[in-house]
Structure to design on (874 residues):
């Protein structure tokens, strides 16, 4: 093997992913060097809780709690940022770039909110910011979209990119339990944080979607324009009804190219059971990407966890090892497209989104109800693909309509009008459906 | 966008993939240039049937039937070899390398049989031979394993890497038809060649498996050591029985790391229905890769066809565009591992393979049969996980045994002994089972 000097890494953060990165780099050092052609060594660690790191690392590597000294250490080639958050992490990453260091990060929130600024700074200093671990954990989805599908005009992508919510949805369906009970269980198992808001309200998925959409379509990262709806309002009744109709409910991140612009949305979604992605269960992640040449492709794996995420961090380290001596002009652009070739496609507001819909409502069980609702839907250019009515006793019924493709704005207007009809007994639950074909 | 000169490509072959490559490069020229930072232009085409190519290309590019002039043209940076076969293709590829040109090829047979020689020649001349299209069509599986999973010690991989056989197996199960009828239909639909031997006997899958195993484990390409068994002997009865037992039969390419060496095998295999790969239907491909850090990952998409395969060819062209100015020492090694760091792990003979088994046999229906068979299995260290007996009338019964993990050599010896028992009425059908976990 060639006798190049080892690449020197400074590690910021020694939590779940940081310790996983240490473990993988240590355990597989030889296997990795056989691939990379040189050794990759963590030469310095900074973390707010050094004792924990020292416990694992021993005396092999200096560990302290001063994050900025790692970023300023002239001996370090690459800084790996695994502390999370968007304030200190941003400061550290920008300083590392300013110091001419390459950066590897797993921080989706940071890139979703400040990615454009960070990538511009990196291009300016001709350094690489690599972020495979920021989306879908270990799955090489950034590499696949950015380098594997370069021949394609990408038409859409759809991803299960948050393991916590997929675990909750799987449990709700398999165990027949309501959302609140399953969330509690997920927290006990460590699949959900004590404050689960970012996961269950779709914010984490939206961070990742903003990054994926950027590299798929060649647009800036636009987290603030993603429509976000979580799963906390989801009724067990709808999970059961979806199953009966041949669908699974998944929290999807969707980025879809339309004639007038791009749809960016995160929300629970009915997906036909015969689609592979509908069968991705538990805390696993998967992303489907549709390109005009390749058709549909799917990428599946663990979207979180210590070593799966570390797998992506280390893959990025190997990539940087290979590319850092290359002419910056010929490197893979951070956001897949050349920085001066990004497009300003408009992001469509949710009212302009096109989808088919699942509408459920409680009504008084009397003749004429169906006809009146159908009339309202038709008046908003919404056509019905199927309908089920369940009598609930005491003169009450539950009706589910499935629609063909319609514009969300029209659907919202129709819902408002239907909710005003005198026989309607409940607010209307509306869920979007995607056939993903 | 930067004003680099276009990269000049010479195209050898204008069949299904060649014409697809032309179409994709032409249609998506701007999208591709936005990514690659320069245009990629086919400047010369050679094919044995120029009239067909001229019909598509018109006067835009010179087309002739002299393949060697493309390889010798000093204006051409990259040669794309899409003529197939292993004799002329080998000569052309080696000549292109000798002339200092990079090569992109979709030719799995060529690489399976002569890959080691070709990659050595390329390393020697410091040129790139890219071959994403050679395995699983458009799915970026070479890139994912070679670059996306570099952190991992890969434990095993399992792939549906031949679309023809997966189409046939899907039809046998869904339509309840025997192999011969479905093959005829596949030939009519163009999913199978007039001479389907390479596909149905597993040879095409074995070509791809030899390449995948090499980049997964860092071993030379060893097609001649792959155990190969096709699907032409598969009985409809076993497809039905597998379904009843909770399995699907798939033709898998399996590469498994064991303590004593590597298993390389292609054969029909029972896979539990709840595994994602068991639900890959029709002509689609999928590969599951298990790494020690990432766990299980799966890659799914079209494994053949004009534009899906062209998608991989063009992705390789973009990669070459990016890497051709890079220091050869820092490029991604052809076979994922540095050429001087390949391992000589032994490839295990089929008798040493470890698997669980499905054994079906016809017997005379009388007391003691089960006990006698179980006794033989036990004497060969084979333990039974479950058993089903179906009475067939006229004093005949069909028995299916599922075993726990056993060594193939022991199973073959037990089968021979059981076939000698006086109540056994048929040869024993034995199929391997993989839980893929």
């Amino acid at each position: 093997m060639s006798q190049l000097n080892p690449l020197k890494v400074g590690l910021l953060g020694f939590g779940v992913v940081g310790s996983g990165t240490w473990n993988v780099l240590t355990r597989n050092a030889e296997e990795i060097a056989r691939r990379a052609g040189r050794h990759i060594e963590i030469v310095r660690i900074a973390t707010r809780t050094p004792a924990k790191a020292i416990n694992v690392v021993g005396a092999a590597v200096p560990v302290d709690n001063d994050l900025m000294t790692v970023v300023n250490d002239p001996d370090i080639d690459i800084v790996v940022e695994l502390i999370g958050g968007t304030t200190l992490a941003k400061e550290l990453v920008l300083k590392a770039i300013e110091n001419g260091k390459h950066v590897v990060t797993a921080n989706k929130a940071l890139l979703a909110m400040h990615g454009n600024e960070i990538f511009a700074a990196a291009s300016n200093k001709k350094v690489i910011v690599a972020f495979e671990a920021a989306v879908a954990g270990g799955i090489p989805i950034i590499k696949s979209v950015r380098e594997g599908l370069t021949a394609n005009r990408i038409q859409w992508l759809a991803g299960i990119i948050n393991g916590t919510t997929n675990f909750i949805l799987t449990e709700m369906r398999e165990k027949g339990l309501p959302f609140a009970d399953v969330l509690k269980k997920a927290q006990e198992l460590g699949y959900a944080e004590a404050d689960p808001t970012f996961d269950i309200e779709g914010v984490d998925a939206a961070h990742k979607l903003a990054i994926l959409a950027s590299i798929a379509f060649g647009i800036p990262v636009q987290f603030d324009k993603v429509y976000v709806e979580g799963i906390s309002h989801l009724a067990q009744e709808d999970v059961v009804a979806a199953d009966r109709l041949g669908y699974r409910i998944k929290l999807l991140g969707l980025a879809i190219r339309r004639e007038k612009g791009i749809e960016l949305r995160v929300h629970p979604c009915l997906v036909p059971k015969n689609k592979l992605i509908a069968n991705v269960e538990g805390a696993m992640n998967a992303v489907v990407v549709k390109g005009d040449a390749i058709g549909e492709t799917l990428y599946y794996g663990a979207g979180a966890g210590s070593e799966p995420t570390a797998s992506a961090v280390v893959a990025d380290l190997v990539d940087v090892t290979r590319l850092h001596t290359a002419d910056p002009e010929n490197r893979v652009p951070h956001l897949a497209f050349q920085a001066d070739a990004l497009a300003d496609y408009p992001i469509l507001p949710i009212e302009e989104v096109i989808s088919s819909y699942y509408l459920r409502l409680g009504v008084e069980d009397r003749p004429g109800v169906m006809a009146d609702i159908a009339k309202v839907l038709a008046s908003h250019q919404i056509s019905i693909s199927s309908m089920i009515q369940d009598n609930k006793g005491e003169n009450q019924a539950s009706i589910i309509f499935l629609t063909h493709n319609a514009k969300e704005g029209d659907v919202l207007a129709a819902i408002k009008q239907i909710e005003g009809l005198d026989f309607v007994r409940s607010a209307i639950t509306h869920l979007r459906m995607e056939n993903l074909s």
Summary: Chain B has 15 helices and 17 strands.
